[in-house]
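Q: My labmate handed me this sequence with no annotations at all. I'd like to see what the chain might look like in three dimensions before we decide whether it's worth expressing. Could you predict it?
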Amino acid sequence: MEYPAQNSPPQAQEPGHSVGHDTMDFMKKNVRAVSIGVGLVIVAVLVVVAYLNQQRRNAETASQMLGAAESPKQLEELLAQYPSSSTAPIAMLALASTQFASGAYDQAYTLYDRFARKYPKHPMVAVAELGKVMCFEARGEAEQALAGFDSFVTAHPDHFLLPQALMGKARCLQQLNRLAEARAVYEDYIAGHPDSEWKTQMEMEMRFMERQKRAPKTDIPAIPFMTPNPPALSSQR
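A: Here is what I predict for the chain of 237 residues:
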């Protein structure tokens, strides 16, 4: 009688053969690929570290240049050499302020507008926004400036530049011969901020308007335009 052949028992694993040996076999067979992969990682790390170090050095140099800048030309050189540095935004605002103070209102407006477009999330973007409005005012565009000051006040009711915006609004109203409204702007701010450092200046402006109102019109043919100061880069209340 023939009996069906039984299945052969599984062969026993060779002694010493383990997962560790599998790993070693893989490393031996793929040593070149593994080496290249590790090398690429090292190179990538070195590139990142070098980039960060270069950025730090650029930032330090740009900061030194900003601190030493005494002319528009030096600020322009800083922006040209280090346009992506952390100090570039402040240098741009400083250059815009310098242009404004020198009477170059078109150039100042261009810089303020460029800042607002390039750095819309920057903490100092409100300075650029107000700077643009003040350029309108300085160019004698009272109606457009008045609308801009109103928009700024509405958008930034608690900003440190609020007093400057309100004074700009009052100046525009004064230019438009809306003296009662201009006076109300000053009075409302003083009533709400009796300890403000701007109180004295606003009171002086109101006294000046009162003298203009009482003086014979033949003695004062027109209200002289006073060029505003560019928006400050630091807080003053």
